[in-house]
Design brief:
This protein is α+β, with helices and mostly antiparallel strands. The protein has one domain: Ferrous iron transport protein A (FeoA) (SH3 type barrels, Roll), CATH 2.30.30.90. Helices cover 19% and strands 42% of the residues. A six-stranded antiparallel β-sheet has the order 1-6-2-3-4-5.
């Protein structure tokens, strides 16, 4: 099921499928440099009460993304827990 990273709940896992169009190329380069490459598997570990930031575990480290960054990452849900 396709979604954006910001829509995922704590405990859900997913795989990066790409990036939303319309965002700046600088944002995309930043996200790629942080390890959010196509096919990367991650798990959502925390979401702040107002949805900003979102913390994920990716490649063995924790990464916090702001709401606008999380809106750019297209994901496929892998399942919960």
């Amino acid at each position: 099921m396709a979604a954006v990273l910001r829509e995922m709940a704590v405990g859900e896992s997913g795989r990066v499928t790409g990036f939303a169009t319309g965002g700046s190329s600088a944002y995309r380069r930043k996200l790629l440099a942080l390890g959010l490459t196509k096919g990367s598997i991650f798990k959502v570990t925390r979401v702040a009460p107002l949805g900003d930031p979102v913390e994920i575990v990716l490649r063995g480290f924790s990464l916090s993304l702001r709401r606008d960054e999380a809106d750019m990452v297209l994901v496929e849900r892998e399942g919960g827990n």
